[in-house]
Specification:
Blueprint (H helix, E strand, L loop, with lengths): L3 H4 L10 H5 L18 H9 L1 H18 L3 H13 L5 H20 L1 H8 L12 H15 L2 H4 L3
Length: 154
């Protein structure tokens, strides 16, 4: 049921699905060469709370943590490049590092919240990773999924 929702989305000719409307998808009766660049609170609400995106962010973060180990700067650089198809600049990497540190501190103080966050979706959590590290990296991935470069082709 979790994955079926997006595979079999009913698409009317005159109006896109509600999630697609929140992401400003065009109607099917109009030809659009390029989507307009928008950023609305409703978009962020959909992307930050969608169980599929949260699960995808968690699995992506776990993969990156396993690949890079303790080298967080390399991990953030690869995460950014994978999601946006461009290299991050110095300021963007600092922001990602700050998000990771803040979330790691928060999840260290509240392991129950980290566990709850990491159990969204059907994919099993990687038990070898520290719960606060995995949750903090997943939050970074969710933030990256909200970048315009990640949404442009949605």
């Amino acid at each position: 049921g979790l994955y079926r929702r997006s595979l079999y989305t009913f698409w009317k000719r005159t109006g896109p699905a509600p999630v697609m409307m929140a992401l400003d998808a065009s109607k099917r009766d109009v030809c659009t060469v390029k989507r307009e660049r928008t950023s609305t609170p409703l978009q962020a609400l959909v992307l930050l709370n969608d169980p599929q995106l949260n699960e995808a962010a968690r699995v992506f973060a776990e993969k990156m943590l396993n690949k890079h180990g303790g080298n967080h700067s390399a991990m953030f650089a690869e995460m950014f490049r994978s999601v946006t198809s461009r290299n991050a600049n110095e300021q963007e990497l600092k922001i990602l590092q700050r998000i990771y540190r803040e979330q790691q501190e928060q999840f260290s103080g509240n392991p129950a919240a980290a566990k709850k966050f990491l159990t969204v979706g059907d994919a099993k959590r990687d038990g070898k990773l520290a719960i606060e590290d995995a949750a903090a990296a997943a939050v970074v991935a969710v933030a990256l999924f909200n970048f315009w470069e990640a949404l442009a082709e949605y």
